[in-house]
Amino acid sequence: MQDAARNRFDRIADNYANSEVHASSPTLQQLSELVGDRTDLEVCDVGCAAGHTAFVFAGRARTVVGVDPSPTMLGNFRTLARSKGLEVEAVEAFAESIPLASDRFDYVTCRLASHHFSDIDAAMAELRRITKPGGRVVIIDLHGDDDPELDGLNHQLEVLHDPTHVRSYTIARWRELFGRAGLEIVHLERDVSERPSGVPLSRWCEIASSGAAAHAALVTLLEHTDPARHEAIGVRRGPSEYMVPVRTCIIMGEKPR
Length: 257
Prior knowledge:
By secondary structure, the chain is α/β, with parallel strands linked by helices. 40% of the residues lie in helices and 24% in strands. It contains eleven helices and ten strands.
């Protein structure tokens, strides 16, 4: 599964570099506000893709490291960083095994990536390991639904959209994962939309290169779903097509000193 995901993201790396969903969102603004005004931070963004989350730390970090298993994603990360006048370090690795020193970073971030991890517990352990005592791990990701039927619908949609999707975890599960990793949650917000106005279903599929068959299957699934369930998961029918909220949570956990 890991190799399949890496190969897939190598092929569609440019889509992520040019994605408005990944480049700008309310969660990036929240992250900026949560980080504050320090200018000496050591930062690592895991599953960095083109680096949009890492770039939040421009002017605040003396070191920015991006970790991603896709060489093409990392190439785009370096290119975008240069265009912004930033010096970065790129590390090719999966989140479950990061070849970086322990206790190194003030902030370790991971946005719109952890739902792809093959072993979420191992990944969380690695995020904690490379964080300094007193440092913080920030997860921004899709989250599941407390209602099992809605959670199942959400999972169907996500797998059709991207076959490398593993799971959007419920908030209860995220609390458990942070606790097991030895991270104290200091901030949690749920039901945030990466695009409050919604992302057209066709554009959502274009970013992920889902393909025409997957797009058609998504439309069919939604057309045969009770509209009340659409509303419950934030999907709405626009003038010409369905609009997807890209519903996320932002969770910040602190590593004990």
